[in-house]
Design a protein that fits this description.
Layout (H helix, E strand, L loop, with lengths): L2 E8 L3 H8 L9 H17 L3 E6 L14 E4 L3 E2 L14 E2 L2 H13 L5 E3 L6 H11 L8 E7 L9 H16 L6 E7 L16 H13 L1 H5 L3 H8 L7 H8 L5 E12 L2 E10 L1
Parallel strand pairs: 1-8, 2-7, 2-8, 3-6
Antiparallel strand pairs: 1-10, 3-7, 4-5, 9-10
Helix pairs in contact: 1-4, 3-5, 5-9
The structure holds 3,4-dihydroxybenzoic acid and fe (iii) ion.
3,4-dihydroxybenzoic acid (DHB) binds next to α1.
Length: about 280
Amino acid sequence: MAKIIAGIGTSHTPAIGAALDNGKTAEPYWTPLFKGYEPAKKWMAETAPDVAIVVYNDHVNAFDFKIIPTFALGCGAEFPIADEGWGARPVPVVKGYPELAAHMVQSLVLDEFDMTIVNEMQVDHGLTVPMSLLYGQPKAWPVRVIPLAVNVIQYPAPTGHRCYMLGKAIKKAVESWDENLRVVIFGTGGMSHQIQGPRAGLINTPFDKAFLDDLTRDPERLSRIPPIEYLRDAGAEAIELVMWLIMRGALGENARELYRFYHVPASSTGVGHIILETA
Ligand code: DHB
Ligand code: FE
């Protein structure tokens, strides 16, 4: 049986990818951030999961305003890197797992989560920056990836509760796949940030830290935060945090915190990172 062994929450700030790609990680602005991810990279190298389900949002790169799926599961064999306006990031193509992804769609749809099946899709910084943070800069990614793109760009985004329930259904889907696989799930985006308008630069550190605390202490509370509260209290782009609740739902009742890191500033974002192990 396949098993979800851990969940990873991490911001996906595009400037982090640019710092890595342009050799700027040793600059004073960036050193605390990359130092904070060192233990996580070590953990990932030791853990070496077979499959990573990466919950992320597309930022009008794979999807434009013609089609905006709420929950899109990447079922292709590979996913090219999107050009976000300054060339595609120089990172390896992302290899998928079509058979497992198709099984997940089947299980999720029968559980009444109406997934959009996406066979061809480019992936942007929402997915590639977390991969770089946890895996470094390899020639090929050492893991098969199933991307799950969530709409948090165009109103209305799904609620945190819906995301949490989807996570639970993902656990069931993975655990009904008859192959011994060690699976991790990423929840990406957040934490507090607002990148435009008069409130640009808004960071709410107490909000972020309480969110990190309650991933283990009280995920039910997090699942009841209404979308408007993310926007009001932690900035318009903090709504990306609902994707962390898909990750958390997929871990089951009890999850143990293995590592956390929180840092401001990185571009406009409160950067948060957590690794949770399943019971
Ligand atoms: C920033 C953060 C994001 O999550 C994003 O998608 C774009 C920009 C930022 O902090 O600059
Ligand atoms: Fe984002």
